[in-house]
Amino acid sequence: MREFKTESKKLLDLMINSIYTNKEIFLRELISNASDAVDKLNFKSLSDESVKLDDEDLAIRVSFDKDARTLTISDNGIGMTGEELEKNLGTIAHSGSQEFKAENAESQGDAVDIIGQFGVGFYSAFMVAKHVRVVSRAFGSNEANVWESDGLEGYTIEPGERDGHGTDIILTLRDNEQGANGEPGEDYDRYLSEWGLKDLIKRYSNYVRYPIQMMVTKSRQKPKPEDAGDDYKPEYEDYQELETINSMTPIWRKHSSDVEQSDYNEFYKSTFHDFEDPARTVSFHAEGTLEYDALLFIPGRAPFDLYSRDYEKGLALYSSNVLIMEKCADLLPDYYNFVRGVIDSADVSLNISRETLQHDRQLRAIARRVEKKITSELESMRDDDRDAYETFFENFGRGLKYGIYSSYGMKADELADLLLFYSAREKKMVTLSEYAHAMPEGQKAIYYAAGDSRERLEKMPVVTGVLARGYDVLLLTQDVDEFTFQAMREYVAKDMPKVYEDDAAKEAAAKAVADGAEPELEDRHLELKNVATGDLDLATEDEKKDAEEATKENGDLFEAMKDALGDKVEKVAVSARLVGESESPACITTEGPLSLEMEKVLQRGPEGDLDGLPKTQRVLELNAKHPVFAKLVAAQKDGDAEKVKLYAGLLYDQALLVEGILPEDPVAFAASVCELM
User: What sequence ranges are listed for the domain Histidine kinase/HSP90-like ATPase (predicted)?
Assistant: First the structure.
């Protein structure tokens, strides 16, 4: 009995119980080792003319014996001598594959794709096996050797027999374990079934470059006997056939011009379990200091759990065609969590278990490139296929908005031009850029209103007032919308017609254009303004003057209404938004950063019933041109304090109803209406 070197027993025990978190990856590791062995022989045939090989004969074979509880992985690769068995399997963490890569770095090229790095993958077999037997015969040698170990005390190496070069790894699997204390047991029998092995091969090793073959059971109809009568019923029999389980050539390694879109669609649907074709497919190959292949899909519909806590984002990460992680979250920002796809790179730095990535600059570089590619594809869809983009945005737009909000506006430059909002004037979805370029001369802000439905927003006095002045209003109907605009604060509109400081400069520019010069353009910073908050500064000088005079003349009335409403409002004032007799008699606006719609969203949250939530600073604005205002003025002059109080409450509650907010006391509101009737 030979002892493992360099405290190997402790290291082996640590690795079996700690390094790998998922036992089923042992098959991936052993198949990868077999692929490396075949690759080494293939490389030898390319560099040594005396070595003659038929590429079609190179393969990996997987077989099992239920009764003996053995699983065998065989290859016809380079094989190992007794000394190499001692070196490679007797010394844990010695990687023969890594050594081979270093020795042949300059001449290896694309013809060889060595996977191994750390020299520990082989020992993952002991997670499922109580005994491992390795029979290997080196290429060009007439002798074979057998390495055996139970993974506990050590190993033995003895002479053996094998027909032809290559290696057989025979695992004697552990017995099934019963669960205890609510914990599930361990079912090792799944590694002794045809369906179980096929599933693992397809999941982790589907794109290993050599055929992975296995005898599979199939069914066929028996020939009809010559003497069978008319009532003969077909009979079937099972038979065994050697079948290649893996696909070998991954679709992402192929040039996009050589792949039909239908093939991409089929790969997407089968791999990511969707029944609809993807909306967009992005395939590219990156070269340079970091080389990788990428195949990305923008889904045609949102998965049902996209906005749930259980949803996991991420791209499938492969290294040399071997699956490392099914969902590598670090390759996608949260706002592109809906993207599905594959990244395959031999250059990323893996940790020892190959189950997770080290967080290094290569990973960040790939993530940045992927993000730019997705953004570019979405911009292309927005500009070239607007209907498709609007469907996409309906499915996934919330995530883009949240990306701006959650980054406190830091991602606005990347995402703002991908957003769509409904235009009250155009009656369609528009981008912020389209809104800006359609603004009348002199407009300095983007106006919006937030609520739960377009229909209600379009009828709100604060919206109709802005539209009447010739300015468009964006109608925001998702709960995240206004928070997104608050985080952005402003939008930088690119390539806007230049605004000149005086008429002389404007005339000079117009003359230059008439003489053939290009019109001057500039980037314009546009504030995002809620039409229901603050001073929009849209009133004319005459309207401002009328409002000031009405305020001075009726100071006592406003003070009385404020006393009647108490802390419900910060103040009562004449409105510069409502100036026509046919418009609403009053409206509710707010001061400060919190709007009525934001307050409603916060109240719907998990802590919406707590007293500690922030409250809006409400202002009741009165339309001085409306007949109701004259009634108020008359009641104040007559000293009818009760009528002023009644009118103040009714106007306030009415304005709340327009905003979609129920009065605090609906019964009292109904009683006040009846009293007036």
Answer: 22-177
* Residue 521 included in any domain: yes
Do 525 and 548 fall within a single domain? no
Say how far apart CA 77 and CA 47 lie, in whole Å: 15
Q: Are residues 266 and 294 in the same domain?
A: yes
Residue 591: other Cβ atoms inside 10 A = 14
Q: Which domain holds residue 139?
A: 2-216
Number of domains in the chain: 4
Helix boundaries (H) for 515-595: 541-553, 555-565
- Taking Cα atoms as reference points, which of 74, 114, 122, 73 lies closest to residue 94? 122
Cα(577)–Cα(572) distance, integer angstroms = 14
Residue 487 belongs to a domain: yes
406 domain-assigned: no
- The DSSP call for residue 473 is -
Please check whether residues 160 and 116 belong to one and the same domain.
yes
> In which residue are the tokens 């849209």 written?
538
Q: Which residue shows structure tokens 């002798």?
A: 143
Q: List Cα–Cα distances, 355 to 22, 37, 277, in angstroms.
A: 9, 22, 30
Same domain, 340 and 369: yes
* pTM for this model (two decimals): 0.76
Q: Assess if residue 273 is contained within a domain.
A: yes
Q: What is the chain's Cα-based Rg? A: 37
Q: Label the pairing between strands 154-160 and 166-173.
A: unpaired
Query: How far apart (Å, rounded) are the C-alpha atoms in residues 349 and 342?
Result: 17
List, for residues 69-90, the tens digit of each pLDDT value: 999 999 999 999 999 998 888 7
